[in-house]
Amino acid sequence: MLNGIHHVAIICADYPRSKAFYTQVLGLKIIAEHYRQARDSYKLDLALPDGSQIELFSFNGAPPRPSYPEAQGLRHLAFKVDDINSVVVHLQAYDVVVEPIRIDEYTGKYYTFFSDPDGLPLELYQLN
Fold it and tell me: Which CATH architecture group holds 1-61?
């Protein structure tokens, strides 16, 4: 029935800052970028290596996401990585604050969290 996740949509507060973060820091490739004049909004389609996508939107006046305490709804977005340590070093080179690497008590896999420029919780999860 369901075959996987096609995309995750994210609304950002500062489009140029978030575009730079997702393309330059996280290294996602741009599929398409559109300015939607009727909405005074950008839509940026970004590709991940597995074929899934992130849609980055800008909407004027969008309220901030309540994260702490955690609100109902999408909790975080997790990215699969091969080598969590090298990705953490890469993020830290861009002054991204990354939590200490932990081990999932149920799976034994390594994971950690960091945030995008708007405070959206992002996770790195090492599968091997």
Answer: Roll (3.10)
Q: Yes or no: say if 10 and 21 are a contact pair by the CB < 8 Å rule.
A: no
| pLDDT tens digits for range 43-96 | 999 999 999 999 999 988 888 877 777 777 778 899 999 999 999 999 999 999
Tell me the one-letter amino acid at 93. Answer: A
Tokens for 86, please give them: 């090298």
Is-above-0.90 flag for pTM?
Answer: no
Phi/psi-derived region of residue 95, left when phi > 0, alpha when psi is between -120 and 50, beta in every other case: left
Please give the CATH number for the structural domain made up of 75-128: 3.10.180.10
Handedness of CA 83, 86, 89, 90 (dihedral sign): negative
